[in-house]
Design a protein that fits this description.
Helices cover about 75% and strands about 0% of the residues. The chain has about 210 residues and is mainly α. It is elongated, with a radius of gyration of 21 Å.
Length: about 210
Amino acid sequence: PLPKYQLARAYLGRNNPNQDATALEQAIAAKPGYLEAILALGDLNLRSGKPQAVVNPLEELVKKRPDLPESRRLLAGAYVALGRLDEAATLYREQIKSTPEASEPYFLLGVILRQQQKTAEARQAFEKASELVPENLIAVDQLVELDLIEKNFDGAQKRVQKELTKKPDRAYVHFIEGKVYGEQRDWSRAASCAEGGMPLPGWHTGEIA
Protein backbone atom coordinates (compact mmCIF):
# COMPACT_ATOMS: atom_id res chain seq x y z
CA PRO A 1 0.00 0.00 0.00
CA LEU A 2 2.86 2.45 0.61
CA PRO A 3 3.88 2.67 -3.09
CA LYS A 4 0.22 3.34 -3.97
CA TYR A 5 0.07 6.13 -1.40
CA GLN A 6 3.32 7.64 -2.66
CA LEU A 7 2.05 7.39 -6.23
CA ALA A 8 -1.14 9.18 -5.23
CA ARG A 9 0.82 12.00 -3.64
CA ALA A 10 2.83 12.32 -6.84
CA TYR A 11 -0.38 12.53 -8.87
CA LEU A 12 -1.67 15.18 -6.49
CA GLY A 13 1.35 17.31 -7.23
CA ARG A 14 0.56 17.04 -10.96
CA ASN A 15 -3.13 17.92 -10.48
CA ASN A 16 -4.48 14.52 -11.49
CA PRO A 17 -7.30 14.09 -8.94
CA ASN A 18 -8.87 11.05 -10.59
CA GLN A 19 -5.60 9.14 -10.69
CA ASP A 20 -4.83 10.32 -7.19
CA ALA A 21 -8.18 9.11 -5.86
CA THR A 22 -7.77 5.74 -7.56
CA ALA A 23 -4.30 5.22 -6.11
CA LEU A 24 -5.47 6.23 -2.63
CA GLU A 25 -8.47 3.89 -2.83
CA GLN A 26 -6.17 1.06 -3.88
CA ALA A 27 -3.85 1.82 -0.97
CA ILE A 28 -6.79 1.70 1.47
CA ALA A 29 -8.08 -1.52 -0.09
CA ALA A 30 -4.66 -3.12 0.31
CA LYS A 31 -4.38 -1.89 3.90
CA PRO A 32 -7.73 -1.08 5.54
CA GLY A 33 -7.36 1.58 8.17
CA TYR A 34 -4.41 3.19 6.36
CA LEU A 35 -4.66 6.52 8.22
CA GLU A 36 -2.62 8.76 5.93
CA ALA A 37 -4.42 7.50 2.82
CA ILE A 38 -7.88 7.88 4.39
CA LEU A 39 -7.17 11.47 5.38
CA ALA A 40 -5.62 12.29 2.01
CA LEU A 41 -8.59 10.82 0.15
CA GLY A 42 -11.02 12.71 2.39
CA ASP A 43 -9.19 15.96 1.72
CA LEU A 44 -9.14 15.26 -2.03
CA ASN A 45 -12.85 14.46 -2.16
CA LEU A 46 -13.73 17.55 -0.17
CA ARG A 47 -11.68 19.81 -2.44
CA SER A 48 -13.14 18.06 -5.50
CA GLY A 49 -16.69 18.88 -4.46
CA LYS A 50 -17.60 15.37 -3.30
CA PRO A 51 -18.52 15.89 0.37
CA GLN A 52 -20.83 12.88 0.53
CA ALA A 53 -17.88 10.63 -0.29
CA VAL A 54 -16.10 12.03 2.77
CA VAL A 55 -18.81 11.33 5.32
CA ASN A 56 -18.89 7.56 5.87
CA PRO A 57 -15.13 6.84 6.08
CA LEU A 58 -14.47 9.94 8.18
CA GLU A 59 -17.36 9.26 10.56
CA GLU A 60 -15.87 5.83 11.16
CA LEU A 61 -12.40 7.31 11.62
CA VAL A 62 -13.62 9.94 14.10
CA LYS A 63 -15.23 7.21 16.18
CA LYS A 64 -12.06 5.12 16.17
CA ARG A 65 -9.59 8.00 16.55
CA PRO A 66 -11.28 10.94 18.30
CA ASP A 67 -7.79 12.29 19.06
CA LEU A 68 -7.16 13.32 15.43
CA PRO A 69 -8.08 16.98 14.75
CA GLU A 70 -7.63 16.51 11.00
CA SER A 71 -10.35 13.87 10.78
CA ARG A 72 -12.82 16.12 12.61
CA ARG A 73 -11.88 19.09 10.40
CA LEU A 74 -12.48 17.16 7.19
CA LEU A 75 -15.74 15.65 8.42
CA ALA A 76 -16.97 19.04 9.61
CA GLY A 77 -16.09 20.52 6.22
CA ALA A 78 -18.15 17.82 4.52
CA TYR A 79 -21.08 18.45 6.86
CA VAL A 80 -20.95 22.17 6.07
CA ALA A 81 -20.91 21.49 2.33
CA LEU A 82 -23.97 19.27 2.78
CA GLY A 83 -25.77 21.87 4.89
CA ARG A 84 -25.51 19.81 8.07
CA LEU A 85 -24.39 22.76 10.17
CA ASP A 86 -25.50 21.47 13.58
CA GLU A 87 -23.40 18.34 13.14
CA ALA A 88 -20.40 20.38 12.00
CA ALA A 89 -20.74 22.66 15.02
CA THR A 90 -20.88 19.65 17.31
CA LEU A 91 -17.59 18.37 15.89
CA TYR A 92 -15.86 21.68 16.48
CA ARG A 93 -17.18 21.85 20.04
CA GLU A 94 -15.79 18.37 20.64
CA GLN A 95 -12.45 19.47 19.18
CA ILE A 96 -12.42 22.51 21.47
CA LYS A 97 -12.83 20.22 24.46
CA SER A 98 -9.89 18.12 23.24
CA THR A 99 -7.61 21.03 22.29
CA PRO A 100 -8.84 24.14 24.16
CA GLU A 101 -5.68 26.09 23.34
CA ALA A 102 -6.10 25.72 19.56
CA SER A 103 -7.51 28.78 17.80
CA GLU A 104 -8.81 27.22 14.58
CA PRO A 105 -11.74 25.23 16.04
CA TYR A 106 -13.09 28.36 17.73
CA PHE A 107 -12.81 30.31 14.49
CA LEU A 108 -14.47 27.63 12.37
CA LEU A 109 -17.21 27.21 14.95
CA GLY A 110 -17.75 30.97 14.79
CA VAL A 111 -18.14 30.81 11.01
CA ILE A 112 -20.84 28.14 11.35
CA LEU A 113 -22.63 30.02 14.12
CA ARG A 114 -22.62 33.13 11.97
CA GLN A 115 -24.19 31.16 9.12
CA GLN A 116 -26.85 30.05 11.60
CA GLN A 117 -27.38 33.71 12.57
CA LYS A 118 -26.36 32.97 16.16
CA THR A 119 -24.52 36.25 16.41
CA ALA A 120 -23.80 36.35 20.14
CA GLU A 121 -22.33 32.83 20.15
CA ALA A 122 -20.37 33.54 16.96
CA ARG A 123 -18.91 36.66 18.55
CA GLN A 124 -17.76 34.67 21.59
CA ALA A 125 -16.08 32.09 19.36
CA PHE A 126 -14.27 34.73 17.29
CA GLU A 127 -13.20 36.59 20.42
CA LYS A 128 -11.65 33.40 21.80
CA ALA A 129 -9.92 32.64 18.49
CA SER A 130 -8.44 36.14 18.46
CA GLU A 131 -7.38 35.86 22.10
CA LEU A 132 -5.52 32.61 21.45
CA VAL A 133 -3.74 33.88 18.31
CA PRO A 134 -3.65 37.69 18.46
CA GLU A 135 -1.51 38.00 15.33
CA ASN A 136 -4.19 36.32 13.19
CA LEU A 137 -6.44 39.11 11.96
CA ILE A 138 -9.06 36.94 10.26
CA ALA A 139 -11.02 36.56 13.49
CA VAL A 140 -10.77 40.33 14.05
CA ASP A 141 -12.17 40.86 10.55
CA GLN A 142 -15.14 38.64 11.42
CA LEU A 143 -15.74 40.56 14.65
CA VAL A 144 -15.67 43.85 12.77
CA GLU A 145 -18.16 42.48 10.25
CA LEU A 146 -20.49 41.52 13.09
CA ASP A 147 -20.16 45.06 14.45
CA LEU A 148 -21.02 46.45 11.02
CA ILE A 149 -24.05 44.20 10.64
CA GLU A 150 -25.32 45.64 13.92
CA LYS A 151 -24.48 49.16 12.70
CA ASN A 152 -22.11 49.47 15.65
CA PHE A 153 -19.68 51.69 13.76
CA ASP A 154 -18.05 53.09 16.90
CA GLY A 155 -17.35 49.57 18.17
CA ALA A 156 -15.92 48.52 14.82
CA GLN A 157 -13.70 51.59 14.63
CA LYS A 158 -12.40 51.10 18.17
CA ARG A 159 -11.58 47.49 17.37
CA VAL A 160 -9.68 48.53 14.25
CA GLN A 161 -7.80 51.30 16.04
CA LYS A 162 -6.68 48.85 18.68
CA GLU A 163 -5.22 46.62 15.96
CA LEU A 164 -3.64 49.57 14.15
CA THR A 165 -1.84 50.51 17.37
CA LYS A 166 -0.41 47.00 17.67
CA LYS A 167 0.09 46.18 13.98
CA PRO A 168 0.52 49.39 11.94
CA ASP A 169 2.58 47.55 9.31
CA ARG A 170 -0.08 44.93 8.55
CA ALA A 171 -1.88 45.63 5.29
CA TYR A 172 -4.87 43.61 6.46
CA VAL A 173 -5.61 46.09 9.27
CA HIS A 174 -5.84 48.92 6.75
CA PHE A 175 -8.10 46.75 4.59
CA ILE A 176 -10.44 46.19 7.56
CA GLU A 177 -10.40 49.89 8.42
CA GLY A 178 -11.35 50.73 4.83
CA LYS A 179 -14.24 48.29 5.09
CA VAL A 180 -15.55 50.15 8.16
CA TYR A 181 -15.45 53.51 6.37
CA GLY A 182 -16.92 52.00 3.23
CA GLU A 183 -19.88 50.64 5.16
CA GLN A 184 -20.53 54.20 6.34
CA ARG A 185 -20.21 55.50 2.75
CA ASP A 186 -17.19 57.55 3.75
CA TRP A 187 -15.40 56.90 0.48
CA SER A 188 -12.66 59.47 1.04
CA ARG A 189 -11.44 57.81 4.23
CA ALA A 190 -11.88 54.37 2.70
CA ALA A 191 -9.60 55.45 -0.16
CA SER A 192 -7.07 56.80 2.35
CA CYS A 193 -6.99 53.39 4.04
CA ALA A 194 -6.23 51.78 0.70
CA GLU A 195 -3.47 54.28 0.08
CA GLY A 196 -2.04 53.53 3.54
CA GLY A 197 -2.13 49.79 2.97
CA MET A 198 -0.84 49.62 -0.59
CA PRO A 199 2.84 50.21 0.24
CA LEU A 200 2.77 47.40 2.81
CA PRO A 201 3.79 43.80 2.04
CA GLY A 202 1.00 41.57 0.82
CA TRP A 203 -1.42 44.21 -0.46
CA HIS A 204 -0.82 43.72 -4.18
CA THR A 205 -0.46 39.93 -3.96
CA GLY A 206 -3.72 39.53 -2.04
CA GLU A 207 -1.84 37.92 0.87
CA ILE A 208 -2.91 40.65 3.25
CA ALA A 209 -3.65 38.48 6.28
